[in-house]
């Protein structure tokens, strides 16, 4: 019984140590990087999710070779990726890339994409409401 108790304490300690670290991007392959980014994004606050996603794609667009991109993001936490994305944004903006020069700074780009997402969400909601109204006058029922 005493050995079982000691084993239980050791197991609990190992699990708490192993699970206490902040999530990081696994950059061994593209598939693993995308999967770890998707998981990390789920645990972020709503405002930070968009910034995290934009930082990831800014980093992805900033490297010509996929291996360079994977090396740059491997092991990054969400805060580190966002900081790297901001730095890459400035670099791409200074190099004259048109998709980045149209924004005055990082915050302006984030705000623009937030507004775009909000508008898409509102249009999606309007379309859904319109379909529901149209289906109310329909004699064919959806049995699914």
Beta-sheet strand percentage?
A: under 5%
- Rough shape? flat
The share of residues in helices is over 70%
Radius of gyration over all CA atoms, rounded:
22 Å
User: How many beta strands in the DSSP annotation?
Assistant: 0
Mean pLDDT: 84
- The stretches of 5 or more residues where confidence is low (pLDDT under 50) are none
Number of domains: 1
How many H/I helices? Answer: 7
Structural class: mainly alpha
- Largest beta-sheet details: none
Note the run of SSEs as H and E: HHHHHHH
The separation of the N and C termini measures 55 Å
Brief description of this entry?
With 144 residues, this protein is mainly α.
Descriptive account of the structure:
The protein is built from 7 helices and no strands. It is mainly alpha-helical and 144 residues long. The protein has one domain. Helix 3 runs antiparallel to helix 4 and helix 3 packs across helix 5. The radius of gyration is 22 Å and the shape is flat. It starts with a helix and ends in an 8-residue tail after the last helix. The model has no long low-confidence stretch (mean pLDDT 84).
């Amino acid at each position: 019984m005493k050995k079982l108790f000691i084993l239980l304490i050791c197991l609990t300690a190992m699990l708490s140590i192993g699970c206490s670290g902040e999530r990081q991007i696994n950059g061994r392959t593209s598939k693993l990087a995308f999967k770890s980014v998707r998981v990390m994004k789920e645990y972020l606050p709503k405002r930070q999710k968009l910034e995290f996603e934009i930082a990831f794609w800014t980093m992805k667009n900033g490297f010509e070779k996929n291996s360079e991109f994977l090396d740059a993001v491997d092991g990054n936490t969400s805060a580190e990726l966002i900081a790297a994305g901001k730095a890459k944004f400035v670099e791409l903006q200074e190099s004259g890339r048109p998709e980045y020069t149209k924004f005055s700074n990082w915050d302006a780009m984030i705000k623009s994409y937030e507004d775009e997402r909000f508008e898409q969400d509102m249009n999606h909601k309007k379309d859904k409401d319109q379909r529901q109204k149209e289906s109310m006058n329909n004699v064919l029922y959806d049995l699914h």
